[in-house]
Design brief:
Elements: E1 7-11, H1 33-49, E2 52-56, E3 73-76, E4 79-82, H2 94-101, E5 107-109, E6 121-124, E7 127-132, H3 138-148, E8 154-159, H4 166-169, E9 170-173, E10 177-180, E11 194-197, E12 209-211, E13 214-218, H5 222-230, E14 235-238, H6 241-244, E15 255-258
């Protein structure tokens, strides 16, 4: 694949304490951390098959949510912004991410009273959409704007009230597709793109991950995968059902660094 060795993806092992993860919109149920770890390995293998170089962050076994590395940083071509997760239990996760990202990008940070989860940040070209959610506050959005605006980005807040993060309900598939859950996200909040509404029976299916010319879709959402394929999108599927029980999607599990 022509993007080989141009994409680095940071991931972290599943904590054995995953069943104690933070939950906001889902009820807590039985969750098998060992099965989640196996699914996560297959996820990393899928990213490798899509042309990514995988870098494993140091494990944090005592931090239940630590596999969800996306929330610890926002990466753009010019720099990395170290986030300050809105769940206090997660704020100690960021330092190991910062150490690794500093080898790839100049680093700045979101600081108190700002809170920002990377899962709330969706970049489409030079526009950065930021979910105003239970995990990302106005101070965090304002700080991100101050950091990125001098680099030529426009930062726009988007209200998020019915799902955990902005990217729980909407993702971008280059060059011009917006994949979204119509019950949670208003596509009018975004620039002109070709909207693809997910199958309503699969509410968490809008969280997709595109690397190069392929888009990763959870195998738990086959109807939405068919809709994307019908639109001409090259789809690869991987099952992460146990991780979905932790209110996670595909983007949650990685930080993508495009070189």
């Amino acid at each position: 694949m022509n993007n080989k060795n141009k994409i680095t993806v940071l991931v972290r092992q599943v904590s054995p304490m995953l069943a104690q993860c933070e939950l906001t919109h889902l009820a807590r149920g039985a969750l098998d951390a060992a099965e989640a770890a196996e699914q996560h390995k297959r996820y990393a293998q899928a990213l490798e098959a899509m042309g990514a170089r995988i870098v494993w962050l140091p494990p944090l076994p005592d931090h239940a949510d630590s596999v969800f590395v996306e929330d610890t940083a926002v990466v753009v071509p010019e720099m990395a912004v170290i986030a300050r997760p809105g769940a206090a239990s997660r704020q100690a996760e960021v330092e190991s991410t910062a150490q690794v990202l500093s080898r790839h990008r100049p680093v700045q940070r979101i600081v108190a009273p700002g809170c920002l989860d990377g899962g709330d940040v969706l970049r489409i070209g030079r526009t950065v959409y930021v979910g105003a959610s239970t995990r990302t506050n106005a101070a965090g959005i304002e700080q991100l704007g101050r950091i990125l605006t001098p680099l030529g980005y426009q930062v726009r807040a988007v209200p998020v009230t019915k799902c955990l993060h902005l990217k729980t309900g909407v993702t971008f598939v280059a060059p011009h597709f917006l994949v979204f859950n119509a019950a949670w996200i208003d596509p009018a909040d975004f620039q002109e793109l070709q909207p693809i509404a997910i199958d309503p029976a699969e509410p968490f299916a809008a969280n997709t991950l595109t690397l190069g010319e392929e888009t990763l879709v959870s195998a738990d959402f086959p109807r939405t995968a068919e809709k994307l394929q019908a639109a001409g999108i090259a789809v690869r599927q991987v099952g992460i059902g146990e991780l979905h029980k932790a209110e996670a999607g595909l983007t949650c599990l990685s930080i993508v660094i495009q070189d």
